[in-house]
Amino acid sequence: MAKITLDNLAHSYLPNPGSEDDFALKELNHDWNDGEAYALLGSSGCGKSTLLNIISGLLRPSHGRVLFDGQDVTDQATAERNIAQVFQFPVVYDTMSVRDNLAFPLRNRGLPADEIRKRVQKVGAMIGMEAELNRKARGLTADAKQKISLGRGMVREDVNALLFDEPLTVIDPHMKWELRTQLKKLHQDFGHTMIYVTHDQTEALTFADKVVVMYDGRVVQIGTPQELFERPAHTFVGYFIGSPGMNVFDAQLSGAEARIGDTVVPLPGTYAATTGKVQLGVRPEFTRLSAGGEGLPVTIRRIEDVGRHKILRLDWQGQEVNALLPEGTPVPAGADRITFDPEGINLYENDWRISPQGRREAA
Question: Using H for helix, E for strand and C for coil, what is the string for 58-92?
Fold first, then answer.
């Protein structure tokens, strides 16, 4: 296991990048703590796989360094970094049995046969393929082959890090849950440093100790699932995390109040004057629907009952707004206004969260 340090790291696929926009990965400085489980989360093309491939050694960065426990490994090949990587699509040896596929990395390191047998048996059970260990990999389904790939990554206990690049894409939904649970247990049992790339927020939030949210080649927030939900550092985090995501309104800020259209919204603190674009963000969980009185005037477009709660799809001046009602709570008769719980309000300047007195929060 290793502490992974990213030092002034940036990458462009262009030979002579002229501006920040030419970089697929914007400058990044961060320590990935030894033994923690991270998820790299973001939409397609945001730089997740680029960053993972730099850490693994498959790609050399244009700028900066990668260090494992303080040792510069930027120019080291993947094999020299002692990592295990599982890719989006399965990579298995079709002519080998499942058992031999799982044992392959252990035999390459010269482990005793008895230890190899025990580890292979254990991992075979973890991935639900104990009964197929003696079967040839050829002819197995894509999800079965991906389970073998996962197992081969998990079978080693001496790796510096385990890297997963969207490994559950071809796995059926029920097995996805099982394998995420097994990966989490593996981390708890052995304490490997794990980095898991995904565009699926459920995978990220259920797997990781900390989630690294990326947007347009930049890390916009690193935090626990609770931190990402309660205090999104960037409007993209608020939009991307949560189902539905955060409601965002253009606003004018004045001390302890914000104005959205003609409606004044009390804020949970006093904010300094701003010079950039101001937006107010509030999650559907903190959006209250009422009939008449104060608040933003809205029209109910539709109601989606998903069992645990109702999702109210609302319209405010042509903008879609979402609110949640707990299970069993009726929609107020004549409902046409929304207000916000003060503790659920976040303020943003040029997409970055500001706290009372205007201090921009670090990602």
Answer: CCCCCEEEEEECCEECCCCCHHHHCEEEECCCCCC
- Portions of the chain given CATH number 3.40.50.300: 4-230
Task: For the chain, give the mean pLDDT.
Answer: 89
Q: What is the pLDDT of residues 151-178, one digit of tens each?
A: 888 888 778 888 888 887 777 777 777 7
Specify the residue for token string 């409601």: 247
Sheet of 352-354: strand order equals 247-250, 278-282, 345-349, 352-354
Within the chain, which residue ranges are assigned CATH 2.40.50.140? 245-354
Beta strand 210-215 pairing with 71-72: unpaired
The two tokens of residue 199 are 């565009």
Assign a CATH topology to domain 245-354.
OB fold (Dihydrolipoamide Acetyltransferase, E2P) (2.40.50)
Integer Rg of the chain from CA: 24
Q: How far apart are CA 97 and CA 136, in angstroms?
A: 4
pLDDT digits (tens, 9 = 90+) for 262-286: 999 999 889 998 889 999 999 999 9
Q: What is the DSSP string of 193-225?
A: -EEEEES-HHHHHHH-SEEEEEETTEEEEEE-H
Q: Which tokens belong to 41?
A: 């989360």
* Cα torsion 216, 222, 225, 228: sign: negative
What pLDDT score was predicted for residue 328? 84
Four-way CATH pick for 4-230: 3.90.226.10, 3.40.50.2300, 3.40.50.300, 3.30.1460.10: 3.40.50.300
Maximum CA extent, the chain: 75
